[in-house]
Predict the 3D structure of the following.
Amino acid sequence: MNNDSWHYDTATDFGLSFLDRLRRCPREPDPFVYAARTVSAIAIRAAMRIYNRFEIVGRDNLPGDRSFVMVSNHASHMDTVALLAALRLRCVHSAYPLAARDYFDANRLRLALTAIIANVMLFDRDASGRQGLNHCKELLEKPGNVLIVFPEGTRTLDGQVGMFRRGIGLLVAGTSYPVVPCYLKGTFHALPKKSLIPRPSRVGLVIGKPRSFEQIEQSDSGAVQISNELHDAVLALSSETRRQTSRSLSKEAYQ
Amino acid sequence: MLQPVIHSEAAMSPSAALQSEIFRIFAFLTTGLLIVGGGVIALIRFGFAKNVSHAWDSYRGWLVMVPIISVSLFAGRETAICFFTLISVAAFIEYSRATGLHRDLTMTSAGLVGVIGIAVAAIVRDPQTGAPGVYGLFMAAPVFVSVMLVLISVLRNRPDGQLKVVALSLFGFVYIGWMFGHVVFLANARNAYGYLLYLLFAVELNDIAAYTCGKLFGRRPLCTNVSPWKTREGAIGAVVISALFPLAVRFALPEFSAIECVIVGLIVGVGGHLGDLAISVIKRDVGVKDMGTLIPGHGGVLDRIDSLLYTAPLFFHFTRYAHGL
C-alpha cells in the first residue's frame, strides 16, 4: 500500500475571489450558495403561486433522466425563475439559464444575485458567443444538466414573440439532446422590461413535447431551420393555452 | 479535581471592556503599534526608497482586521463567540475547497454543523452550574461529529470513497473547528480579555518576530521541504521573544507566576511555529500556495490563524489546569 499519494480534487476555481468564482460556469459547489439558492427557489415558487397564480401545464414532458435544453419566449426577468420552478428543487443547482454577459455582469450586485439565485451562465451576445456554445455542449454531455435558452436574445418590448436567433440551432443541430419548447404566458404583463415591481397578474407555463434534431446537419441553414421550427413550436403552445383559458373562462361565465 | 467556577456576570460586555485595564492597555498598544508600523513602512519606502509593497499589503490587511477584532471583542461575549465562529466557518470552507471535500456537500455541511455546534456549546449556559459555556459538550464534540459523519456514510448505503470524505471532514472539524473552538470558548473565562487579547497579540507577535529575526539573522533553513523560507535563526529568535513577552504583559495574566508566564510564552513560541508548519504541510500536500484570498496581503483565513490553531488548545488547557478558566 502506498501512502505517499492521495489524490485531492482541489477546487478548480481555487484562489479566485468570490465574484470571480460566480462568473465561472459550472461553479464549484459551495454549501452557503446552495443553501441560499434552495431557500430562494422555495420562496420564489411560493410567491409566484400565490401572487401570480402561477400554473404549469405539461410538466411530464420534461425528460427525467438526461440533460436537455429548455427553449422559451422571453418577456421578463420572471421568465427564468418561472422555468426554474418547473424543475425539481434539487435540479436548480444544475440548471443553467444562459444570460447576456454585457447585461448581467454589468454590476456586482446583479451578477451576485443572478448567479446565486438562478445559477446563470454568462454568455457573450457578440461573435465570441460561438465559444460559449462549445461550453454549453460540454455541459449537455454530462448527465443531469439543464440549459435554459431564450433564443430571441432579449426581452420583448411589445409582448410579441420575436424571431429566434440561430444560436440555438447551432447548439443542437446533429445532436440527440432533447429540446423542450416552452411557452410563458402573462410574464410580459406581470413584469415587463423597465419595470421593477411585479404586478399580481396571472402567469402560466406550458411545456411542450421534447424533440431532437439528429437528422439536421450542422450548418447555418440547418440552424436557421431549427430555430424557425422551435419558434413555431413555441407559438403553437401559445395558441394551445389561449384555447384552454378561453374555454375555462367561458364555462365560468355561463354557469 | 477542578471545581467549576460559578459566574454570575459575563466577563465580557461593553461596560466591562471600558472598565477593564487590560482591554484599554491592549487597545493603546495595538493602536500605537499600527501607527509605528505604518511610520516604519513609510520611512523605508520614502527614506530609503526600497520596495515595500509586500509589507504594505500585509499592513493594510492589519488595518482592516484590527478594528473588526476589537469591535467584536468590545461588544461582548456573544459577539466575540459569533465572530470567532465565523472565522472558523470560513477556514473550514477554505480547507474543504483545497482538499476537494467541498464536492461532497453533505459531508462538508456535516463538518460545518460541528463547527456551529462548538459555538452553541460555547454560548449557552451550563445547565448544572449556570456557568457560561457547556465545557463537557465542547470537549465531547469530536465524538458526536464522528458519529454523525459515519452515520451519513451508513445511511447512504454506498461504501465507495467514504473513508476519504469522512477522514477529511473529521480532520477538518477537529483541527479547525474544534481546536480554534478553544479560542471561541476562551470568551467564557473570568479573565476573558486578558487571555484572549494576550493570546491573539502574542501569536501575531511571534509571527512578526520570526519574520523579522529571519530577515535580519536568517542563515540556516528550518524545514525546507515544508516551508522553504523559514530559518532556524528566525525560529529561535521568535521563541525567545515569545517566552519573555508574557513577563512584559503580566497585567494581562495576573494569576500567573513568573515560571508559568514563561511556560505560556513557550507554548505560544513553539506552538505557533508548529501550527504554521502544520498548515504548510497540508498546503504542500494538496498543492496550493495560499488557502484563500479573503484577507488582502495575508492570503486566506486559514493562513492567518494557522499558528492560533496549534497554540490555542495548549494555552487553554494549561490555563485551565493551572488556574481554572
User: Anything to note?
Assistant: Chain A touches chain B at residues 6, 8-11, 14-17, 28-32, 34 (CB under 8 Å). Residues 220-254 of chain A form the longest helix (35 residues).
